[in-house]
Amino acid sequence: MKRIEKIYCYLDENTQKFSMEELLQDNGFETGEISEQLNILRNNVSKELHELLRLDKIIKIKGRPVKFLHKTCVEKILNIEIKEKSIEVGSIKELLVKRESEDPFQNLIGAEKSLKNQVEQAKAAIIYPPVGLHTLIFGQTGVGKTLFAKMMYNYGKYIKKFTDKSPFIIFNCADYYNNPQLLLAHIFGYIKGAFTGADHEKEGLVEKAHGGILFLDEIHRLPPEGQEMIFYFMDTGTYNKLGETERKRKASILIIGATTEDPSSHMLKTFMRRIPIIISIPPLQERTVEEKIDIIKYLFVNEAHRVNKSIKISTEVVKALIGSVSYGNIGQLKSNIQLTCAKGFLNNINNGKECIELDFKMLSSNIKSGLFEFGRDYKDFKEVSNILEAPLLISPDGYKVMIEDAEELPFNLYKLIEDKISLLKEEGMDDNDINKFIITDLNIKFKIFYNKFNKNKEHKERISKIIDKEILEFAEQMKDLAETDLTRKYSDRFVYALSFHLSAFFKRMKEKKYDTNKYTYHSIQDNDEEYKVALKITAIMSQTFQVEVPEVEITYIAILLKSVEEESQEQVGIIVAAHGSNTASSMLSAVRGLLGDVSSVGAVDMPLDVSPKEILEVMIEKVKSINKGKGVLLLVDMGSLFNFEATIVEKTGVKVKTIDMVSTPLLLEAVRKSSILGMELEDIFNSLREFRGYNNELNGEKSFSDKVIITVCTSGKGTAVKLKEIVENVLFNLTQENIDVIPVEVRELDKKIKTLQKKYDILAVVGVKKPKDNIPFIPLEKLIDGNGEKILREIIVGNQFMVLPEKESVVIKDLCEDNLKQFLTYLNPHKIIGILLNFVDELEKELHIAFDNSMKIRIILHVGYALERIVANDGLKCEADKEPISTELARSVDSTCEIFKKSVNISLTEDEKYYICKMLSSAET
Predict the structure, then answer these.
(1) Residue 602 and residue 636: Cα distance in Å, rounded?
(2) 832 lies in the same domain as 897
(3) End-to-end distance of the chain based on CA atoms, in angstroms?
(4) Average pLDDT per run of 10 along the chain, which is 925 residues long?
(5) Is 906 within 8 Å of 900 (Cβ atoms)?
(6) 194: in domain
């Protein structure tokens, strides 16, 4: 039994022995008494008692001496329900006194100043009869919109508009934004038999929220259909569950929405007309200096309470923290304070002082720069100096829970530091190296945790191991700017390409290796529209990252803007036609068995007793249906089928090319070149005319050592080199043959290809721009999301290389292992990743399905975190009624989870298995 469990059990067993009278006389258990009874060092008992208090497991009676009691036992003896968290009282009698509730907005920093108008709006919205006025809260990420909505709910209870039983239901509209039917079922519920698998009636959020508040977070992500569902309910107060035809059900609900986007441009006008109250929460930069300091004090008090030590903060640290917030508002400020406290706590362990001291020199570089940023506003800078004439001294006694924080860290920050120090010291690491290791580890954890507000999260997770988060965010913003100014669409390839380029640029600047004389470039006329946008981007880049941007960078970015527009997703259609009842269909079936369910491919069987005229009509209709904008290739066996080309072109207007003597290898090669390599009709036609099968090498073919792959990005000096490393890792996983990878710059691509083709056989181009020549092209985004490996394998097969047996994607393994490293504390990511990959393989076999790369990554990370939770004795628990799960799915997951029992002696709980089933079933939906 763990130390903390022993202490908790001791309090449980002995608190039960007290009568009500004894409790009211403030009997309890002192730290020294527990230490003596359990033979545990006093300071260790004190630390564990603090942790139990934070977990809301015990009650602390303040005074001399301090005493502790088991919370659940106290509730039973006094026959009361204690709803407050982390209870600290002067006397147990306080728990029985019916305390008058206070206006929750009194505790809101800025309620009488910068937020005064917003508070008045909120109160008016709650007070208005009969159920209040529907409200929209608008503000940037991290300003506290959810906190404000919860305060509105608490204010409703304060004025007796709501009771303690009135619900406050939170729903994130992003969860179902692309599935209106699922959204309808979730919000309004469904009846038995409404759809396949609906074997019982289910209540929706509207029914659960009856008599209270339904809070719709990220309401701008509601599709038009979802907005219409909600505003009809607002108008009538009636609704129907999915599967019902009449709106006979009623509910009395106040709806509060929250959005970071301009409502007028992201919401239906008909919807906005139903929202009479719009509350705009200002960003942190617009709050008064006094409020900013009060917020900092409040956040520091929370940290002081967690670590149970006083914290001393210099005025320079306060100023730097205020100036360090650029985009994340209070959320980012909280993250910076937690990281700063973590460093202070680490130093405190080493020096053994009672108080944690935070000074300017210990701040991370990005927070230090905040001092100079804040110093630009002389008025605010002077006001802070007037308010804080001496360092701040924060005591843990001032801790007060305003509202439960839904965005609390998923790990005990200070316990994690202590555990890692102990572990690293056992490994013989010195204090300086330990400090560096732990701070780096915490930096990663904070970045990952506070990344949840970012858009395109899935793509960011894939590339986050290569590119810094701030650079990635900046590239996404510049994509939006370019699309607006140039009125054209850019794909994720632009974001990746600009991110790679900026990452290399900053690295060269930091290492002082950037010499503009070495970077020759073609001039771009000043009136080029791309050049003007590039000028704007570099100006923003200079301001955002506080760096002087050389003029050459304007040209690089202008070239990128010219090169990386969103490309058409069209591809060449392929039809195989052959005499016989199912000859063509059999060929197509064989190809699909080898390459998967490829699109834009069809088969036409020609029974010998059917006339050519009838077959021609069938072929014409087939060409019309399969054409995707790039023409159609006909692969036929003989005779009249070869002569259909001219008539089909005349009747359909579709560009058509025909090749006879079709075979399964020929069809396979055609599908590869169209579906996987994305080649043009003319290029596929010309290459197939020379095709003699996979086992027939052409005379004069170059040696394998002359084969190369080109990586292309904005600058061959850094970014394409990064791509080179990625491609080399993938190739190492695919073949033992020698294939060189050559990085080039985007502006030189076609010229460089001409030169390289004289010496090498270029297998493919990987990167941001498709070459003009007939060379297979792998876009950057496909390489990042894992599909690039499949394309490279096909290229290697087509060039008659020896290919290694297919094994787990190196991209999946690397991405997952890197993510697990950032989150796991107890398990070894390097060892567990192999078990998790095996788990996914076995699950595929059990369910008879093949997961795509994205789903494999989701499963591996989810189950990896589940195993960590079990080891930490903190497994997920399903509090609500469980939704029905397929018996077959539940059996398969249960059976496959035995892998963990056999390999690492960890058994997942039934609730953890339920959540795995739920994730798998939602993916199928």
Answers:
(1) 12
(2) yes
(3) 43
(4) 90 88 86 91 90 90 88 83 80 65 81 92 91 92 90 90 90 74 82 80 91 92 81 88 85 93 82 90 90 91 84 90 82 87 84 84 81 74 79 72 51 69 71 71 59 45 60 84 82 76 77 57 62 88 84 79 62 86 82 66 83 84 84 81 80 87 82 72 78 50 63 61 71 74 80 85 82 78 64 67 52 66 72 87 86 78 86 76 81 91 88 86 61
(5) yes
(6) yes
Distance CA(418)–CA(307), nearest Å, equals 11
Establish if 74 belongs to a structural domain: yes
Domain CATH number, residue 723 = 3.40.50
Q: State the Cα–Cα distance between residues 140 and 922, nearest whole angstrom.
A: 30
Q: How many structural domains are present in the chain?
A: 7
Domain hosting residue 59, numbered range: 3-95
Confidence (pTM): 0.45
522/591 same-domain check: no
Token readout for 737 is 């043959």
Residues 252, 321: one domain? no
Position 150 scores a pLDDT of 92
How do 656-659 and 168-172 pair as beta strands?
A: unpaired
Going by C-alpha positions, the residue among 620, 586, 580 that lies closest to residue 603 is 586
Q: What is the CATH number of the domain that holds 529?
A: 1.10.1790.10
Provide the H-helix boundaries in 277-394: 289-307, 315-323, 329-351, 365-374, 378-387
Are 683 and 716 contacting, i.e. CB atoms less than 8 angstroms apart? no
Residue 475 near residue 501 (C-beta atoms within 8 A):
no
Q: What would the two tokens of residue 118 be?
A: 């917003």
Contacts 24+ apart (CB under 8 A), 452-459: 453/141, 453/142, 453/328, 453/331, 456/492, 458/854, 459/492, 459/495, 459/781, 459/784, 459/785
Q: How far is CA 702 from the centre of its chain?
A: 45
Q: Are 870 and 910 in contact (CB under 8 A)?
A: no
How far apart (Å, rounded) are the C-alpha atoms in residues 807 and 835? 14
Question: Coil, strand or helix: which one is 173?
Answer: helix
The reply to whether 225 falls in a domain is yes
Q: Where are the alpha helices (DSSP H) in 92-144?
A: 116-127
Question: Domain boundary residue among 422, 449, 476?
Answer: 449
Query: Shortest CA distance to 166 belongs to which of 198, 203, 128, 208?
Result: 208
Task: Choose among 555, 547, 549: nearest CA to 520.
Answer: 555
| Largest pairwise CA distance in the chain | 105
Query: What are the tokens at 900?
Result: 């963990």
Rounded to whole angstroms, what are the CA distances from 287 to 168, 330, 664, 889? Answer: 28, 11, 70, 52
- Cβ distance 359 to 316 under 8 Å? yes
- Residues 525, 594 share a domain: no
How far is residue 239's CA from residue 249's CA, in Å, rounded to a whole number?
Answer: 5
338 near 409, Cβ under 8 Å?
yes
Domain-embedded: residue 102: no
Using N-to-C axis directions, what is the helix angle for 787-798 and 719-734, rounded to 10°?
60
**H or E element in which residue 405 lies:** none
Residue type, 816: C
Q: Are 675 and 595 in contact (CB under 8 A)?
A: yes
Q: Which residues of 57-80 are buried (b: 16+ CB within 10 A; e: fewer)?
A: bbbbbeeeeebbbbbbbbeebeee
Contact 681, 655 (CB under 8 A): yes
Q: Which residues contact 100 (CB under 8 A, 6 or more apart)?
A: none
Residue 656's DSSP bridge partners are: 632
Please say whether the beta carbons of 914 and 877 come within 8 A. no
Last residue of a domain, one of 563, 592, 607: 563
Same domain flag for 863 and 905: yes
Length reported for the chain: 925
Residues 426 and 401 in one domain: yes
The radius of gyration of the chain from alpha carbons, rounded to an integer in Å, stands at 33
Q: How far apart are CA 713 and CA 722, in angstroms?
A: 9
Same domain, 579 and 559: no
